[in-house]
């Protein structure tokens, strides 16, 4: 009921304040890209071992911390040329991808793999344990306070509007270089992932393992290796998301993986857990819902939603999760597979 | 020449003693069948050979080398390929992708093997780009066998290839098993349809609650009083 009201409110709001609406959609898309990257890690791992890797949000957080460390170590400042800044950004991106995938692979190797034939609850609880371990490691590593990353974008470009400066549009809608960068990093990663899973021999082996582990082993596929690769790929995407997040929200703290992790988990479930495209769609849905809820809803004309604000966002997003579970438990793209005997 | 040997193999599911000292020999070029009722340990025997489970004691040898501690993907690599019970095709992959997975150990699918499979099962050629989950039961069985052949097996393990198929399809599947054998692949066949199995096989073993109670040529088993009573429904 509330959701229907919200939907009507949104449509009316979009009609009433189109520029503001578009602005929040743009922020939502950038946020959604980030969530999609994390959600893919949940869905990849769930698809192959049917485990919700609750430590995944923290793997993302570690990626953010590592990216920040890499940039600080290179010592670049915004006075340097574009090329050097871009090189530092790429280095940090690749570094955090490697770092996060190593952590994710390591967790599976030392813990989950030993629990492969244990009851499902055992690895799940173990995952929650790792989530706390990683958070505390981050506190030990960098302290518990929020950190700001060393600047990579010169301050005059922070509020730079691409639509105005590049296209000469007279509009209040603003697309910042940062918004563009998020999408420009995410899209190639998504395409690369699709290609890897759908076309390569290793990707096909992973899909086969996800569908039937014993049958895959009988085809000569090293099942443990396929599972490790899922953890590595998922970790790499989380690391990339970490690097992007630390610059997009301009801060990092040990608890950041908790919120992003739960939102991304919700995105994966809403899209249909185990389904890669579903995770991406779910990511954008959650990202856009997040941004609209944080800023746009309270502008709903007539003041009916003036009490709405960012404090209600988690309620809205987990409300979406509950609605999905009730009305479409397999998610938007999830399929209920009929097995033939 | 003995290709595959099981010597006094004991295997357990938890505390349940499923295989109680199985000894089997399969010679190069033969079709050997394991018959027995439900729960006799036929599937367990094949799973143990393939390395999906490991024997607690006893030995499994391929060409004289022990393989009882080998991981399943390495067993396949050594040339023992299984088409499992219930087909277990990759239902969300196309027919062609399933066949490619069968050739996984060889890198790319060999076009000659692909043609051979399509010659044996023309229906698979017609449905090449269809998802395996949309195939009929009989077509899925063809795919499971074709997929196993793509691995260029020295010895092909077939678990209940006739399960759930109509009598006409069963005849077809068994004549194809003979054809595969004639092309040079050794076959170890597990069947509940004892009559058909003993018709195509050279030799047979009768399994009862985890033990071999009888072994002879297929012809003698077909004539055996107790086999006729228990498994041929006479």
By helix and strand content of chain B, what is the structural category? alpha/beta
How many strand units of chain A? 0
Helix share bin of chain A: over 70%
As laid out across the biggest beta sheet of chain B, the strand order is 6-7-8-3-9-10
Number of helices of chain A: 13
* Poorly predicted residue ranges of chain A: 337-341
Strand content of chain B: 25-35%
Largest interface: A-B, 22 and 34 residues
User: Could you spell the SSE succession of chain A in H and E letters?
Assistant: HHHHHHHHHHHHH
* Mean model confidence by pLDDT of chain A: 90
What form of chain A results from the Cα inertia axes? globular
Helix content of chain B: 25-40%
- Number of strand elements of chain B: 10
Helices and strands of chain B, in order, run as EEEHEEHEHHHHEHEHEEHH
- Largest sheet descriptor of chain A: none
Number of structural domains of chain A:
1
Alpha plus pi helix count of chain B: 10
* Distance linking N and C termini of chain A: 42 Å
Describe the largest sheet of chain B: 6 strands, mixed
Secondary structure layout plus pairing:
The complex is a heterodimer of chains A (341) and B (234).
Chain A: H1 2-16, H2 18-49, H3 56-74, H4 82-110, H5 121-142, H6 162-167, H7 177-199, H8 201-211, H9 213-218, H10 223-248, H11 256-271, H12 276-296, H13 313-327
Helix pairs in contact in A: 1-2, 2-7, 2-10, 2-11, 2-12, 3-4, 3-5, 3-10, 3-11, 4-10, 7-8, 7-10, 8-10, 11-12, 11-13, 12-13
Chain B: E1 2-13, E2 16-27, E3 31-35, H1 42-50, E4 57-62, E5 65-66, H2 72-77, E6 80-83, H3 95-102, H4 111-120, H5 122-126, H6 137-149, E7 155-159, H7 167-182, E8 186-191, H8 194-200, E9 203-208, E10 211-217, H9 218-223, H10 225-231
Parallel strand pairs in B: 3-8, 3-9, 6-7, 7-8
Antiparallel strand pairs in B: 1-2, 1-4, 4-5, 9-10
Which keywords apply here?
heterodimer, A: 341 residues, mainly alpha, globular, disordered C terminus, B: 234 residues, alpha/beta, six-stranded mixed beta sheet, four-stranded antiparallel beta sheet, 28% strand
